[in-house]
Amino acid sequence: FQTISVMKIIFIALVALLGLCSAAVVQHKLVYRESRKAEMMRRGEWGAYVQHKAALRDANPAVYASLPQNVNDYGDIEYLGNITIGTPPQPFLVVLDTGSSNLWVPGTTCGGTCKGKKKFDFTKSTTFVSNNQSWVIQYESGSAKGFLGQDTVAFGAATEQQLPVPKTTFGIATQISADFKNDAADGILGLAFTSLAVDHVVPPLINAINQGLLDQPLFTVWLEHMGTATNVGGGIFTYGAIDTTNCGPVIAYQPLSSATYYQFVASGFKLGSYSITKNYQVISDTGTSFIGGPQSVLDGIAKSLGATYNANYGSYLLPCGTNKGTLDITIGANVYSIEPVNYVIDVGMGDGTCVFAVFPFNNFGFGPSWILGDPFVRQYCNIHDIGQQRMRTTFIALVALLGLCSAAVLQHKLIFRESQKIQMMRRGEWGAYVQHKEALRDANPAVYANVPQNVNDYGDFEYLGNITIGTPPQPFLVVLDTGSANLWVPGPNCDGSCVGKRIFDSQKSTTFQIDGKPWSIQYGSGNAKGYLGQDTVAFGAATEKQLPVPKTTFGIATHISADFKSDAAEGILGLAFTSLAVDHVVPPLINAISQGILDQPIFTVWLEHKGSANNVGGGVFTYGALDTTNCGDIIAYQPLSSATYYQFVASGFKLGSYSITKNYQVISDTGTSFIGGPKAVIAGLADALGATYHSDDQSYYLPCATAKGTLDVTIGSNVYSIKPVNYIVDVGMGDTCIFAAFAFNNFGFGPSWILGDPFIRQYCNVHDIGQQRMGFAPSLQAST
User: Fold this and answer.
1) Of 103, 386, 438, 627, which has fewest CB within 10 angstroms of its CB?
2) Which of 669, 697, 757, 768 is catalytic?
3) Which H or E element spans position 590?
4) Which pairs of Cys residues are joined through disulfide bonds in the record (predicted)?
């Protein structure tokens, strides 16, 4: 399909609030309820609650794992809606959440956490169909689980105009999060895309669009500002049309970055004397009562506002009468101004103190950098233009991937190169480097915004591969990265950051076609940018067997990240799905599959353990087949959670005396040299190993001769054991080695774990794109 047409079709529109008259298609009235966060702030309990959760997380992850916390922090919700399920209809009050994609409600067998909630009794519905499939949604801590069923779901209360959607699959919960127990909502109605849905269940609204039940494939969100009154009218979701009663003319449309969340680009934030200009990935989310963003930026905005951070409340406090003007957000060519009435929140402390409605979080390169929650959505109606054509294109693309067979198998040889991280550790520079970046982040966010740091921390990669582009072929050494989806290499107009790297000269290729579209990839700090072109991209070196893929769109960089400048790699070849690609560019491998160039729509990754030798053979990527030379028999396949990253569920981790059993979203990622996971769990594993944390370089040190057995990862019904040779790394510091693990917090977006090279060296990873699953096989090498 044509990427340009997709960009024109998927939009989120922002319109000014106004009081005009018109008719709606189906309008879903909301109930406003003050968030539990605001209630706890007023009672002076929020700080203790935050500290309690942090203490559990840091000190005892096994206990913390049993204290569920919902995705999107559903204690932070403010707007609820009525639905009915079944025939005759059974009523429920649910969170209308644009940040998730599944519908679930409690079932009759749900226990103590469901006490007081309405429960769906399928035995009383004449239209219910069971599919006998178990269902689990994993939250940051805790989960909801039960079984799936199919019935008629109707948007709206039975006493109002409804939108009935027959044959809708939803979850019937037998257990829900403990944090959810005290909330008014009975369940959650996700309104995002199918690609974000657990078990690939088609969301109710997408199902309605597919069945042609709406006039237009869109919905409008209007949230009413209700102060602190609870259980009153809170706004309207209008399905199938623009809400011209409560919303004015459309100001502008903004293309979505991907059809997962309602995610798009904002390029600047300003309040008073503080401003920052930088491209950020942001989402519009009705399930979040505040605005979330990078802490360094929020600190700057809060300082300009005169707000003071209060650790007891975990929030920025300020006098209720504060008025320093609007909080301005630049999206596309327009500035959207949020007035103080929407970002200064009176939670009823009684002493004239209010809360600045923001909260900090770090996305660690996964998901959005900002959450534009209710303060933004109250100021501007949000039109979620899903687009009927777009949905058809998505389905066509998936069918194409599932129905291919043809031509070739290619083995792509790798080159091992020690990561910059390990080199800097050996030279004693890593700690100073980390401190330098943190100092810039904490002390001067405006400066820090100009210090590039690559997505996936490309200073952390170890395996490179050769490709050629054009006719005659021009060679490049690139990162083969299963954690991203774009290909780019330097172009002839690249600035000083490209000095010493090979560049692609389009004038020397007879098969090159200019796209002319500007192209930019935003990293955690810094970016790569240039323009798009199309040419033949061949996997492998010109001296080897190659896999040529004609008419492949890629980025020609005029600027790349400064951190990338000193590295051997000349570009990045992303091998993930199109839904993850910037500008919806079809990745080279997906393009090869779509053209029928491969025997099977799969590829196998085998990484060789090479110690610390550089620029030697590092393994093989086999495109189109299983690698039976370097890999044993498939142990098992695991279904992907979503076709974005190669993401799936792992249910346990164990090393020595430490173990934790809990469902985590994990990804297999060749672009990461260590294993990443939750801080508390990594600390527990390290303690069992006898490794000592060094805060100066944020790493765990241990004697190289340490042998405490295997690091065991449970995936499906199998345990995958990583031997010490793969998780203990000798960085050249004598008898001292590094535990190849690092801590990060995903803040509810993206995976909780990154299974990097230590896991992939131990087990071949089979990426089955056609059936959207991962296979694992033992690596046939003596060192493992």
Assistant:
1) 438
2) 669
3) helix 588-594
4) 494-498
- pLDDT tens, residue by residue, 22-72: 222 445 545 444 444 455 545 555 555 555 444 433 433 333 232 222 223
Same domain, 379 and 421: no
Task: Categorize the per-residue pLDDT at 751 as very low, low, confident or very high, splitting at 50, 70 and 90.
Answer: confident
Q: Count CB neighbours of 354 within 10 A.
A: 22
Give domain status of residue 403, yes or no.
no
Check whether residue 341 and residue 476 sit in a common domain: no
In a domain, residue 495? The reply is yes
How far is CA 422 from each of CA 255, 429, 553, 661, rounded to the nearest angstrom? 39, 10, 34, 31
- Locus of tokens 């993206």: 750
Are 734 and 653 in the same domain? yes
User: CA-to-CA distance for 644 and 769, rounded, in angstroms?
Assistant: 11
Residue 507 neighbours by CB under 8 Å, 6+ apart: none
Q: What is the maximum alpha-carbon separation in the chain?
A: 76
Query: Which residue has 């998936």 as its token pair?
Result: 398
Residue of 533, 527, 531, 534 lying closest to 519 (CA atoms) = 531
Asked if 481 is an active-site residue, the reply is: yes
Exposed, middle or buried: residue 166 (CB in 10 Å: 0-12, 13-18, 19+)? middle
| Residue ranges making up the domain that contains 308 | 3-385
Strand pairing report for 262-271 and 274-284: antiparallel
Of the residues 582, 600, 618, the one at which a domain ends: 600
Q: State whether residue 305 is helix, strand or coil.
A: helix
Q: Residue 86 — left, alpha, or beta (φ > 0 → left; ψ -120 to 50 → alpha)?
A: left
Total structural domains within the chain = 3
| Assigned domain for 431 exists | yes
Q: Which of 73, 481, 583, 757 is catalytic?
A: 481
Amino acid in the structure at residue 218: L
Average per-residue pLDDT for the chain: 77
Report the alpha-carbon distance of residue 505 to residue 690 in Å, rounded. Answer: 52
Assess whether 115 and 152 both reside in one domain. yes
Residue carrying the six token digits 């500035």: 335
- Looking at residue 687, which CATH number applies to its domain? 2.40.70.10
**Three-state DSSP class for 765?**
strand
Distance, in Å, from the CA atom of 708 to the CA atom of 714, rounded to the nearest integer, reads 18
Cβ count near 666 (within 10 Å) = 28
Classify residue 157: in a domain, yes or no: yes
| Residues 428, 375 share a domain | no
Give the whole-angstrom CA distance, residue 665 versus residue 649.
5
Helix or strand (DSSP H, E) at 422: helix 420-426
Q: Please indicate, yes or no, whether residues 585 and 707 belong to a single structural domain of this protein.
A: no
In a shared domain, residues 533 and 575? yes
Asked which of 2-6, 40-44, 181-185, 706-710 is least confident by mean pLDDT, the reply is 2-6
Between 171 and 288, the higher pLDDT residue:
171
pLDDT for position 84: 96
Tokens of 326: 């609007």
Is 186 annotated as catalytic? no
Q: Which of 726, 637, 725, 721 is nearest to 675 (CA)?
A: 726
Task: Judge if 248 and 334 occupy the same domain.
Answer: yes
Question: Could you tell me the two tokens for 476?
Answer: 């490049």
Query: Could you tell me if 356 and 318 are in contact, meaning their C-beta atoms sit under 8 angstroms apart?
Result: yes
